[in-house]
Every structure is written in C-alpha cells, then in structure tokens.
Amino acid sequence: MSGSRRWFAVVGLWWVCLSVHAQPGALPQLNTHQQQWIADQIFQNECAGREACLTSWNAGEDFPSLGIGHFIWYRTGQQEAFKESFPELLAFYVASGVSLPSWIAGLAEWDNPWSDRETFLASQDSERMQSLRQFLLETRQVQAAFIVQRMRNSLALMQAHSDTPDDLQQRFATVANAAPPYGMYALIDYVNFKGEGVSASERYQGQGWGLLQVLEHMDMAALQSDSGEQVLSAFARSAREILDRRIANAPAERNEIRWRAGWHKRTETYLPGG
C-alpha cells in the first residue's frame, strides 16, 4: 500500500461499519456467546487451538498468516494473488478503540517487517513476537467480530459479480438461517477461509473457489428444504466440490492435493455435531 495506508484502512473500516449498520437485518444476530463459539471454531480450524500457530508462515508461501483467521500480511510493495487482510484487522482494532502492541503502533506503515520466512521463524521467541501472540490470543473475540463483519459485507460484493444477484441473496439468507448458529458459522468461516470469490487474481484456469462459487454451485432442491441440516449438508458438499475443482486446476508445483483431506474435514464442521 501507499504511504497513506493507515488513513485509508481506518477510513475504509469506518465506511464499512456504517454500511453494516445501515443494512436491513435479514441475517440472524449473534450474541456474545455465539461469537465466542465461532471464534473458537475458527481458531481450531486454522490453528488446532495452538497459541504458537497465531504467528505462522507456512512453507511454500511468501507471507505470514496471523491470528485466529490466519490473516495475510504482506511486505512493502508486495503483490500476491490472495487478499491481504491483516492491515484491515489492525484498522478494525483502531476503529474499535483497541490499542495495538507498541511495536506495531510504532511502524511507519502497516507492512510486514520480516524480509523472509527464515527471519520470521528465527524471531518466534523474540519479545515482540511473544507480545503479538499474547495480543492475538486475548483479542480473539475482536477478530471474530472482524470476520463476521467481512461476511456480512460479502453479499453486496458477490451480487455485483453474479448474473443472478437476487437468487444469490436468497441462497445466502437460506444458509445463514439454517440451524442457528451453524449457518452463520458456515458463511463466516468459508469467506474467511477462501474469500468472497470475486477477485480476478483468485482464479485457476479462470475458475474461482470462494463463497460466491460455493453458493452458486449448491443444489437448488436442498435450498428449498425445511431442514436446516439438509441445507448445511448441501453447502458443505458444494464447498468440497469447489475445493476439489481448485485442486484439479491448480499449478502442479503448488501440490494442493496435500491440503484436500484437511479442507474436507473443515467443511464437516459446518454441520451440527460435525
């Protein structure tokens, strides 16, 4: 981002908060207990509940992934195919009145300060890395609220990229209201996991793998069911099929089939008792 990174991030979050507040409430509202449950589920999905995983840099990737949602953090001027989200989370903290760790607040820009994975891993026991993990652990519910906000704002983004926006809205609402709070959790987790599916850069062979593609791929008969569990089963099945398509389309050197079992297991958590 440019030198105005902080200003644009904070102002952008301010407008997002206004838009969320102004939208008519067609989606279930989550109470504090449900938000905490969702935060813990996402933490389990991304990190198996391990505190050390809150500051990760996966092998084969050129960026670290931080927090319960493994939010991506790029270096200055870095351009990648995937959506960067950690600076947006920092802006959300600021907009929410949460003080950042002093060393992050003191950065000239909200850019990843580590030059490479080796440097990052060598810093795992440093004072500032420990303070970052503690901060991320203690603010899990704030991160959950940030993820919820992203999900709520995803609908308008997806509709703008859909040939059938009204149908998409109905699918979105049907899943959201299925077996509360599991339907909201499924949408929240998947959009955090694989994005909205609207970015042209997040495509293999022209095909995306985000929430938009999962919703559009869902079986219509299941969407008309009165059973929330059947709706969620159809959503999870669609997600697995879209993820399998991503793996089939991925460049061979990425070897994405290694993630297939874990990705499939994640979709099983969208079902009550899963």
TrEMBL record:
Residues 1-22 form the signal peptide. This is DUF4034 domain-containing protein. Keywords: Signal. It comes from the Bacteria.
